[in-house]
Amino acid sequence: MLDFNKLQFQQTLNEMGFKENEIMPYQELIVSEINYVKNFLFYLNDIEINSLIFTYDKKGFLSVEGETSQESLRHIYNSLKRLRKGQLEFLAALYKGDPQLWQNALRVLYEHYINYITLTHRVLIPRQIDEELKKMQPHKVKQGYQQVASLSAILIAPVQRIPRYILLGKELQKCIHKKNGIMIDFDKKLTAFINTATDLSQKINQETLQLDQIYVRQKLKRLSINHRSHFSLALELLGDLQVLNQDAAKNVMDKFDFSACVLQDYESIKQALAVQANIKFAPLLQNKITEDKILHCIKKMIEYEQRKGKSADAFKQNILIYLSQSLYNQRALGIPFNLIQALLETYKMLITKGGSLEHFIEFISNGLLGNINLIFNENHIPNLTVMDLHHAFVPDMERSSSPYIDPSWDDFSLEREPHEFTPHFSLHNQSIASIAPASPRLPSSQRRNKHNN
Length: 453
What we know:
By secondary structure, this protein is mainly α. 65% of the residues lie in helices and 0% in strands.
């Protein structure tokens, strides 16, 4: 029943007006279908699948959370039997040289495939089931079947089958076009069959994607707050996040706290992001780490000032509190994390409360910048300088007449000479690793001479 029927195949070729060597992809399509049905869909009979299912009832069977249940395995096998019946009808249609019959038979398989994909999505077979399957292997090999490593290897086969129809259908079409006098009617029907297979493949991919997205969201819901601070867990999730779009992946990362990220974690990042599929997450992950560390740094500085009690500097506390609120507001509004903008908003708020630019700059340069630049150095980001604040707060044309700008500030810098930092830096707009230092600054005297000229 499942052997290649050469006599029927030759008869079909004669009706089509082809010789066997002129249309090899057609034979390959039938032979590959026979192998697929025989070696995968018919690999397990009812007695053998029941033997696997009854393994759940054996003494000492331990089920792990997330593994396929006994009931689910029954549903999967019933779905496989329905799929098997539809594939036999499709195989029978393939022996007839009419692609429209192939197309009709394939359409019947639509619902069976979608149902099967849903049941087997991310299926996790218990270890004891695979051990029972291994015991069957010698007998299956004697029957002429291939040896399989696990039950999952059998269950995944239908998912991989549909693209094969598209490939062999296109190869068959090339042979048809080489024939003198193109078979227009056959070619149109073959094109319709290829389109149906393509449509089914796309629907399977779409269904799989939706199931993947549901799985990832459910997995994230189960994570506790403590788990969200584990950096290693975030790296493990990178594979799952592939199914989400960039905004959804960002929302996932936003729920993690990387403020405690250490040197070993950076090495883990390099290894995880070295995988081609994870490259798109590099800016997202690196930026989130930097943002969390900055917010954590500001939080610790606020707590330090509060512990001083009566000797605490209320002006410093206000700066840090306003800055923290501004950065958290950016996150809440879903806009890019922009430290310069947050500092500018903090300054404007302080001015309305009677603060001065001199005191603001003094605190930022003597306290906050040093801590922030340590974080930037860890992530290979050019340092932020007082001159960057100067350029951000006062436009070039207003500097000479501004009552707030003291030319001596041009000479102010941290103890170690920093790299020039890109003004209005927005962490989410570019990869941290790609931010290049700007051109070296001229000495302050030359800048003032250039400005005056």
